[in-house]
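Customer escalation, tier 2.

The customer says the design service returned an amino acid string that "doesn't look like it belongs to this structure." They asked us to rerun it and document both sides in this ticket. The original structure tokens are below, unchanged.
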């Protein structure tokens, strides 16, 4: 009891003289980690201010956590974003800016986040989609039981006969059945089994749970679609492209258009827009329920007070705003992510912080909280100070990037790369021709009034000083990768 009462003061002293590793040793125990990632989840959660979405379980977790209001991924598509978080390196450093490259091909000696815990004596297991979900990119060296996520989880999502054709079919489908009928219900179930195992064995663990929704196709049990039966999805805010935005910033919704019920070109009908928004929200609620089951079991087993919990989305998403659907841009809606951290290791603080942070900060934060020394240089910064003092001064910015043409994420070599920086007031993007290293387009957006860009003000005299400052920052960032 005496140690418990001294913990806030002990932490402050040890943080100043030796970091969180010293604190971890002082309390003579290893903190576990429950690492939850949801695919394509933008911050449409009640704890982020969206009162339309139904997310009671995530909101309950948020109430016992620090919620990062302004967290950003490093590239708004699955493989680069996850490779960045899990290696602690930025996309140009991992060499991963597409959906097919495995970071080991570019940085074979990288020590991943779960690998760092494994090397420190933890049991590390990943269930579901943690790394990008291909055989090549699973990275078996990171895990104590490398096949766990591949053996126990089905990929079956379509159950209607018209959609059982292999590959993409309808963009959404909801059928009667329990949660375990679909992959995320199975992922939650396997996570719960592993928590029980860890409770019985007492072994320190790093357990990564990768939920597959709300990624397309939007498939889940019927009851989640029914949750939104009385809700209106009639309006898409900021539906037009930002004024004066360059064409290179956009794409033609190729990901969505690959589904058989979506037109190959042209606009969607109003009904299609409303159905897709409702289906996306239904899948968020499905994910919320799985997280609730996992957290309930963590509490029931008495593991909560010795487990750091991190919930994050690998990137954001567009739902018709700015003439865009899905991800794959440098805009705010695609780069901004939910990030929620529960850290009982530092006498659980709660609340929200408006500090600008990056997904690449997750790796150094977790090893900091658990007293693990980094095996190599990491590009992010530990967020432990913000967990202790969410309102502290924090002057960092966030960097993201995206390649063009669109097919550069799959089959083509990129010809252009857009680098973007977000500070507390503005988002600034420079589009580079990669063959000449010349800047071909500039975007500057004032973000003080909205999380959606509406007018490109690059080149305007009124913002010349801000643009000059941000351009200098971006150019230095690009050169130092």
């Amino acid at each position: 009891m005496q140690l418990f009462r001294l913990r806030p003061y002990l932490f402050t002293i040890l943080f100043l003289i030796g970091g969180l590793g010293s604190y971890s040793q002082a309390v003579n125990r290893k903190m576990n980690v429950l690492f939850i990632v949801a695919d394509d989840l933008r911050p449409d959660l009640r704890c982020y201010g969206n009162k339309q979405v139904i997310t009671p379980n995530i909101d309950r977790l948020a109430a016992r956590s620090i919620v990062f209001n302004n967290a950003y991924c490093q590239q708004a598509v699955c493989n680069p974003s996850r490779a960045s978080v899990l290696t602690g390196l930025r996309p140009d450093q991992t060499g991963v800016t597409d959906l097919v490259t495995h970071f080991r091909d570019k940085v074979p000696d990288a020590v991943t986040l779960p690998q760092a815990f494994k090397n420190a004596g933890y049991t590390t297991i990943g269930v579901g989609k943690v790394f990008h979900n291909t055989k090549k990119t699973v990275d078996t060296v990171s895990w104590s039981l490398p096949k766990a996520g591949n053996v126990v989880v089905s990929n079956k999502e379509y159950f209607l006969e018209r959609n059982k054709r292999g590959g993409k079919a309808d963009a959404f489908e909801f059928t009667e059945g329990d949660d375990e009928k679909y992959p995320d219900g199975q992922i939650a179930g396997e996570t719960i089994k592993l928590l029980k195992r860890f409770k019985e064995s007492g072994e320190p663990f790093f357990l990564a749970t990768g939920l597959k929704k709300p990624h397309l196709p939007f498939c889940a049990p019927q009851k989640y679609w029914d949750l939104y039966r009385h809700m209106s999805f009639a309006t898409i805010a900021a539906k037009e492209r930002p004024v004066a935005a360059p064409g290179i910033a956009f794409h033609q919704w190729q990901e969505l258009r690959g589904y058989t019920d979506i037109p190959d070109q042209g606009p969607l009908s109003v009904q299609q827009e409303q159905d897709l928004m409702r289906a996306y929200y239904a899948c968020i609620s499905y994910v919320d329920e799985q997280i609730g089951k996992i957290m309930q079991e963590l509490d029931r087993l008495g593991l909560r007070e010795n487990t750091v919990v991190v919930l994050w989305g690998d990137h954001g998403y567009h739902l018709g705003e700015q003439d865009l659907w899905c991800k794959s841009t440098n805009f705010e809606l695609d780069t901004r992510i939910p990030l929620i951290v529960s850290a009982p290791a530092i006498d659980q603080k709660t609340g929200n912080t408006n500090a600008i942070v990056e997904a690449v900060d997750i790796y150094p934060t977790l090893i900091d909280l658990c007293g693990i020394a980094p095996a190599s240089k990491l590009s992010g910064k530990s967020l432990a100070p913000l967990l202790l003092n969410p309102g502290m001064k924090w002057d960092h910015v966030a960097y993201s990037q995206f390649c063009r043409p669109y097919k550069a994420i799959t089959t083509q070599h990129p010809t252009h790369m857009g680098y973007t920086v977000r500070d507390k007031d503005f988002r600034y993007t420079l589009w580079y021709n990669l063959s000449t290293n010349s800047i071909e387009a500039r975007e500057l957006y004032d973000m003080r009034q909205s999380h959606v860009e509406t007018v490109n003000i690059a080149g305007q005299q009124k913002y010349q000083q801000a643009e000059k400052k941000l351009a200098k920052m971006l150019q230095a960032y690009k050169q130092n990768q």
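Tier 2 assessment: The sequence is consistent with the input. The chain has one domain: 31-397. DSSP finds 16 helices and 15 strands in the chain. Sent an explanation to the customer and offered a walkthrough call.
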